[in-house]
Amino acid sequence: MISLQRLNQDTTWKIAIANRTLLLDPWLTGSEIDGFSWFNEQWHATPPVPIEDLGKIDHIIISQPFSDHCHEETLQLLSPEIPIAAVPAARKRLGKTFGQSRAFQTIPEYKNGFWNLGELRFAQFRMASLLDQVHNALLILSPNEENVFYAPHGFVPNAKQIAVLKQYPIHVLITTVSEYHLPFFLGGTVNLGLGVLQKLAQILNPRHIISTHDEQKYAKGLVPKIARTFYPGAATVLEKQANYMAVEDYGVVEL
Predict the structure, then answer these.
(1) Strand partners for 148
(2) What pairing do the DSSP bridges indicate for beta strands 137-141 and 104-106?
(3) Whose CA is closest to 56, among 109, 8, 19, 97?
């Protein structure tokens, strides 16, 4: 059984799986800034779970190099005794921030194998284009086939990736249902939305789908002025995806 707890209304999760408790993409304090505050600075619209209320955490997992996933201010407030594993781009960012004061482990791209944490295995999946640094996903394999596919911005696998993913039954797909569009020179469509979720669900056939990265945050700067967004309600998503589960509060969900 997997236990999930949403820790903010964006994309921070506490996941208990295979006798490990993971803290995924923690952003639990302050704002996040993309490059410069004049470009994009965001705050949670709903206060997250306080750090002091997290309970025991065995490992921190960072899936993306961006500050709403790889939030240094939060990481500095967490115990330095909690190990951190990150995908390569996030690992590089953290190395610049923390230097030699913290030890980090790297979660490889699936073509280079898996990173093992006890009975759990982790691998990153990236979109085919080298220019696309946003639409990456994380596969977490557990010994009881309670596998998790985490694609916070949405994900479109290619034929080789589909062949790999078909080997593993997906218990929970955690991905976005919202759309967040920017001009192409600023990254294009950041959150791919419900249509891409449906296509991904047809490929993975997950038992459960939970939305993430769909918080309508407070924001200032250039990005929120030019972004085009769409946030479908839970009823709309359920009409199109029957195995969708809306997790809106901060309680624990067991699947």
Answers:
(1) 140, 172
(2) unpaired
(3) 19
Q: Which residue has the tokens 């490889």?
A: 108
Phi, psi values for residue 217, rounded to 5°: -80, 160
Task: Supply angle C-alpha 127, 128, 133, rounded to 5.
Answer: 50
Separation between Cα atoms, residue 133 and residue 143, nearest integer Å: 30
This prediction has a pTM of 0.97
Tokens of 94: 């953290």
In this predicted structure, what is the pLDDT of residue 13?
Answer: 98
With 0-12 CB in 10 A as exposed, 13-18 as middle and 19+ as buried, what is 38? exposed
CA–CA separation, 110 and 120 (whole Å): 14
pLDDT tens for 8-64 read 999 999 999 999 999 999 999 999 999 899 999 999 999 999 999 999 999 999 999
The closest alpha carbon to 198, from 227, 246, 156, belongs to: 156
φ, ψ for residue 219, nearest 5 deg = -150, 155
Whether 135 and 161 have beta carbons less than 8 Å apart is answered as no
